[in-house]
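tool_call predict_complex ligand=s-citryldethia Coenzyme A
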Amino acid sequence: MSQTVQLIIDNKTYELPVITGTEDEKAIDISKLRDLTGYVTLDIGYKNTGATKSAITFLDGEVGILKYRGYPIEQLAGQSSFLEVAYLLIYGALPSKDQIKDFQAKINHHTLIHEDMKKFFDGFPSNSHPMGQLTALISSLSAFYPESLNSVQSKEDVDLTIIKLLAKMTTIVSWIYKKSLGHPVIYPQNKYDYVTNYLHMTFGQRTEDVVIDPVVVDAMNVLLILHADHEQNCSTSTVRIVGSSEANLYSSVSAGISALWGPLHGGANQAVIEMLEKIKADGGDTDKWIAKAKDKNDPFRLMGFGHRVYKNFDPRAKIIKKACDDILEKLGIDDEVLEIAKRLEEVALKDPYFIERKLYPNVDFYSGIIYRALGFPTEMFTVLFALGRLPGWIAQWKEMKENKEPIGRPRQIYVGAVDQDYVDIEKR
Ligand code: SDX
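tool_result ok
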């Protein structure tokens, strides 16, 4: 017997259906509310509003659980590879040996980008932010691969576009980095797996064969897995709503990259390192900066802390924090900002302000420390977040299309001027 709830408006009782998810989450289905009552709901920031039913990622913010297609993030980060997790998110099941081999081969076949795209790279000012470049370059892929624009997308069209986007993202991201250094770009090599190929194009040199440290490959796989999806966050919701207008995958993902750029979202990983560096330059007085974060008259926020849905430890932050110590030790790096980050976490988690508001370290708090240890400049951190989130955006866009969801178009409550008559400019 399906569950319902009652809503009483002007002494009239309405029955609304309740939806229960496979992890026992409950929702009131209000899809008929306006037809029934003339009312809409208002939920600025969608803090209480579900936008869809999804089978891709489940998270429980109160307990700190994150699962991709039912698999706990701890198991995937500890035992899987980023390409295997990408396959799992996009196609819904862990691949067999033959399937992952075929997936890797298809991707390797498409890692080159059209040589004319180099003109775009040359057009950007050398100090332009990598996220602005990435947004433009990903959207430009639709100009070179018109099958993505077919109004009726066959399964083959969609699969080819997905493979091309996964493949070319690594080349574009690594070339943005090389261009920022004024270095010649490095071309992909089919002998490498997905992550190693990306690192080869990023840290490789034209003049000699650079051996990519397996420690770096393993760390990159873990970081990319941890960023791969996170249900209906700001950038993923952007990808879904842009895709709901039947815009192509490249432009939908480009819009997601723009949303991710903001410092309240993916841009936080860059903001965390800049914050830690500022605290270090200021003498490392963490108490002073915690006080600033609590002061309502001070715009300073503890970047990398707090989360819209996690009201407990972000499970990804736990894994990254542990990986920080391992990787810095293996690479023989002693980074003072790691100690500052640990002190900030220790002080904040004992402070009533943070405890009352359930503010914990999120995925961005420690990730920048590892990216820096791996050799990436700060401005590349959010691009690396986008590289990791790409399979999640693709999976969510694909699910929205397969479910034939309608174009997204929220309602509003109008609070502006009423009954205005036009006045000629001479009389204003
Ligand atoms: C990501 O959604 C996702 O899943 C995102 C993500 C993903 O994988 O896609 O997990 C990735 O975006 C992680 C979040 C990265 N952003 C940051 O680290 C930026 C710093 N954090 C915040 O600005 C904030 O916590 C948000 C944006 C993450 C969440 O903001 P909310 O849910 O809108 O909460 P809020 O701003 O209303 O804060 C509630 C209270 C407020 O105090 P009061 O008005 O109740 O007194 O907590 C305070 C806030 O001032 N607060 C902070 C704080 N975060 C919240 N105070 C100091 N420092 C902070 N970092």
